[in-house]
Amino acid sequence: MSQFVRICSQTELPATGAVAEFTVDGRAICVANVGGSISVLNGVCPHEEGPLGEGSIEEGCVVCPWHGYSFDAKTGISPEEPDLKAQVYESVVESGELRAKL
């Protein structure tokens, strides 16, 4: 069973409507803040491996900066291509830290 691992401190969370990229155990992780709700996604775009953590937020989706593919921040599903999905991890903010089950 996966354990929660530290992603970042609460002070490092992106502002509302923004994303941030973190590296955890050698993996790129995308943290998205959609309307004050935090989501943790695999930071590598499933389309062509672009950096989701360098993208933007539009209509509740994380948008890859390379080709504009978007992924729902809660489900990871792409509205443009429902078969294309970014991994979304269970996460929690507690004791001043964001943690996720990777």
Structure description:
With 102 residues, this protein is mainly beta. Helix content is 0%, strand content 46%. It has no helices and ten strands. The protein has a four-stranded antiparallel β-sheet with strand order 2-3-4-8, with no helix packed on it.
Q: Structural class, please?
A: mainly beta
Stated plainly, the CATH topology is called Rieske Iron-sulfur Protein
Total beta-strand segments: 10
Major β-sheet annotation: 4 strands, antiparallel
Secondary-structure element sequence?
A: EEEEEEEEEE
What is the helical fraction, as a range of percent? under 10%
Give the SSE map.
Layout: E1 4-9, E2 18-24, E3 27-34, E4 37-42, E5 56-58, E6 61-63, E7 70-72, E8 88-89, E9 91-94, E10 97-101
Antiparallel strand pairs: 1-10, 2-3, 3-4, 4-8, 5-6, 6-7, 9-10
